Amino acid sequence: MSTEAPGPAAPSDALLSVRDLSVVYEPAGADPTFAVENVSFDLRRGEFVGLVGESGSGKSTLGFALTRLSKPPARISHGRILFDGRDIASIDSEALREQRQGGFAMVLQSGMNALNPVRSIRNHFFDVFKAHGHVPHDRREQRARDLIGKVELPAATLDRFPGELSGGMRQRVSIALALSLEPQLMVFDEPTTALDVLVQHAVMNTIRDLQKSEGFTAVLISHDLGIVLEATERVLVMHEGVIVEDGPSSQILSNPSADYTRMLLSHYADPRAEIVSLPGFEDRSIRRDQGVSRSALASPEHAPTVVTRSISTAQESIVVKGVSKTYPPPRRGEQPVRAVRDVSFTLEPGQSLALVGQSGSGKSTIAKMITGVEKPSEGSISFGGLDVAKLRRGQLRDLHSNVQMVFQDPYAALNPLHTIEYTLMRPVVNFTGLKGDDARHRVRELLDTVGLTPVEQFAAKLPHELSGGQRQRVVIARALASDPQVIIADEPVSMLDVSLRAGVLALLEDLREKWGVSLLYITHDLLSARLITDNIMVLHDGAVVERGETAEVLQRPTDAYTVALLDAVPNPARAHGAT
Amino acid sequence: MKYALRKVGLLILTLWAAITLNFFLPRLMPGSPTDAAIAKLSQNGPVTAATRKAIEIQLGVPDGNVLEQYLQYLKQVVTLQFGISYTFYPQPVAELVSQALPYTLILVGLVTIVAFVCGTLLGVLAAWKRGTWLDALPTLGGSFASAFPYFWTALLLLFFLGYVFKIFPTSGAYGVTNTPGLNAAFLGSAAVHAVLPAVTILITSLGGWILGMRNTMISTLGDDYVTFAEANGLKPRTVALRYAARNAILPNLTSFGLALGGVVGGSVLVETVFGYPGIGYLLLKAVTNQDYPLMQALFLMITVSVLLANFLVDILYGVLDPRTRK
After folding, report:
1. If you ran DSSP here, which 8-state letter would residue A335 be given?
2. Of A163, A187, A399, B227, which shows the fewest CB atoms inside 10 Å?
3. Beta carbon pairs, A and B, within 8 Å
4. pTM
5. Could you report the predicted ipTM of this complex, rounded to two decimals?
């Protein structure tokens, strides 16, 4: 749409009409970039609209602009935001402040940090009432109790301080605070992203129920098309600052018009289905029946990155026998924390095993014990017949060269001051004893293995010049430097955009299929577990509640907790009655 | 309440430990004041046992074993009997200290508090109006002023305001014609005498508080709870003070505690430059004259004041930050 065009007239029941809105980032000493460019759309009263896009698409920038919360270096450079007929893009700050009551409210992504740590929850409500004077003095306490009840929290929560509440409770409190403004429009910016799977599900249900009962217009901003399609009636898809698709959710699900939307959708599947295939991943049963590897059935853009090795890399198995881990009580007079309870399993050479559960289920503690970082309180873990807890320093070094970790956060796992070459040189020199040009040559090989080509260019880069997916490949390359037999991947794709996930998962799968590396895959994401693992163990409160072949367990779960985890996976198809 | 009680217990325990160390440390050192005196005397000729006995009695060498001495010492500390000063013989140490203490506490203590309060407020303002002249002026001015060494600023002020323009007196705590006490003439004179040292402390310490507060406040202004408070349309004053500043002040309280604790011990330079008869001045005299009783009392004072200041800040922290109360 050109900037000069007046834009279509707003429908008569429009609450919000955005016309040719552009938001520019003007960082000091750098070129300005447009995060949102000439965006136009209308929101009708009572509508529940989703705003979807990957990181960097401009969705949050747009959300902040709609609620006039853009802060420097971001600036609304152009366009109008008509809220209830009034252009809020250009009103002064005091008028804007008054408009926030009975106008538009926002719930932030990091609801955990959206509350003032030194103020009680009650005072948070009273601050809002005082600022706008819309609740008379003698009604304030009652009003705060009503609001906290609406988000399904007990009235006693009002006496608490934010630090005493869980993440989910804090996010509920911020929703209640936003509600206390009696807004006509609520913008939810990734309201559940920082929360645990099951909590996510529950908070989303609360948001949906509130939208129905309170009747506000809602915008749900998310990177997760699944969550958005399940919750909303209409979806705007954003890509590189532009809305590429705008339509009813059911239509986007069944008949998307933009290539970008189709690409996003192609990365969703129901982990419970009989056949689960994603781009580059034919279902495991099909591969097994045909006796071929992942890459054999994949299209050229999902081609293999590693060359088959004649001898399988992994020769030894990890045997975990009756392992428990108990931490001393966090405070005096409390119970000790039993992080892991009597877990046993064997990871055979070249096998892939998924450890699944929400945070606090003990899955990361198991990884720490396997690598010798923590010692089991009971039971034993052995690798190649040696008890990990009893290894001496030199043996521990051998263990670490054979068992390597890939961490969740590729942004935190790389030192921002070192080039990729330096980062990879360290483990190469430490573990293989190669020096100088030999070591440099090995670094190039590693980069080639993880698909970061041309290798010369990537070797010279600093972490901030890479995307999240590229960084995670560097982290995997670093893990491969010692040519390990086992890779323990702790949520390796949970922080990546969907379009980047497939590539990292394919790499892990190829390393296992072609090199014979054993894989312990720790995740809460059942779909990715289904794609790259043979066997699965579901952990709850430190204990194994269900185990078996991955496809079998996910299709026919027997434990209530596994069922709850599966129910928490967004299922847009079910929500919109399609198949 | 439980938090406060625990802190009181901790204070008593550390106080006891400090007092005990103060007793044992000098006893671990080789030699004694008597030996030192005899060593000097023996240069002029042989020293008899009677002379030695006389010196011991004069210096008050304690009787009994170490435990008895320790109990005796504890009793003396509690009843504030620190003996007689060598330098100001025959004035008791307790009397000297009690005369000097008010000057130091009122001058340095009060100015430290004023500097903290003013600096913090200016820092809040600078961060809130970031990028405007309200930010540039205190930030640049503060760091400029505090970049000078303390004594240099002091000498500059003394020279111009004291000698050249003769607006303020150049030394002492009150005029020679005044009698200390609650009379108008003395209080007026004391106030005028305090201006130069006070201004010097203010100038050199203000910048640190401004910068410290401004920087922590800028970081809290970027915190999500501030954005959320703005999204909820709270008044700018509430957002700035109750949300951003209220959280930003917490880390600065620790530095404030250290500064308060340093008031008694750190006043040496001020009081020397301005000839101000406070604790610092007394300490300098005690050290240069090897006045052991006075020194011991002053060191104990310094320890106690650091502990007390930290205790006060701990309690304040407990009141201001609910997260520490657990």
Report:
1. P
2. A163
3. 83
4. 0.82
5. 0.79
